[in-house]
Design brief:
This protein is mainly α and 333 residues long. It contains twelve helices and four strands. It binds zinc ion.
Amino acid sequence: MNQPKTLVARSLLCALTLAAALGCQDRTVPATPAAPPTAAPLFVFGSSAPLNLHERVLLAATARFPPPAGSARDFPPAALDAAWDTAVRGYARAFGSMFSPAATAAQRGLSRADAARFCAPDPTPVVPHAVCALWPAYQRDQWAKDDAKNKAFIDRLQKTRPELWQAIADDLVRLYGMPWPKHPLRVEVAAEVGGPGAAYTTDAGYVTLASTDARHQGDAGLEILFHEASHLMFAEVEKALAAAGEKTGRPVPDALWHALLFYGTGRVVQKHIGPGYTTYAEAQGLYTRGGFDGFAPALDAHWRPYLDGEVTLDTALAGVLTALPPDDRGVDP
Ligand SMILES: [Zn+2]
């Protein structure tokens, strides 16, 4: 999800480097995809007022991810500047970062909160109450605008190559060795998102996308949708990466797991759309001007063959680690 803003995920997984060696056999590329049931929908989309206000304040409180140019900044009105500052400071104190357990708990609570209970006398306990000073004005002046943007984004996204969705999901399930997270996987859409435009919350089992982020429009929005879903099905690759580090004796760069995910899901989406599609990481320069500088040659040489079904997962990961400069830690974008 700042550096180059991009996506970053908002889960403890983002902060963790898997250090433990987990016994791993060499896994071959499965011959038969463990496809999810095709009759069940992959995603269900939602737009919630409490979560939209929460994400706005969270974005301001976690300055690591400044909003990209062109993002909506139409709330609050000047008369609420003081209340806004208080809420932002409260969020910064309560959550520390968007990867904190408290922030994850808030996401979980907000996914269930309905507008009638949000900031009620017994407010959602995981949200700093200072945000409630903004709630009446948000509902009155801003929510309808945000909701309209969200619904327009959802409508566009649902019309973006829907015939490819199941095939993309099937490939991700096969390559990452985990089932589809949930049928359907909930996608909360917010005008602004307190991650770099998109986020996932592992234990809440849903993802959040920003409707006003210019980087999420068109086919890139489709990749981001599946990128965030991939976060919920990447644990086996991360385990294999840790094991490859033990086996090869090479350090595992902190940002490498996320680079593998960006590259992998981008490659799958590109395979289905066609070679004319530029992956999100390439379009945003993650391999050249931020985050994953220096990773691209190793990913091209060793990760791509796994994605194309030519080598095993363990062979690919060992190859990536061996090819990387030993002192390149990377920076999670
Ligand atoms: Zn990510």
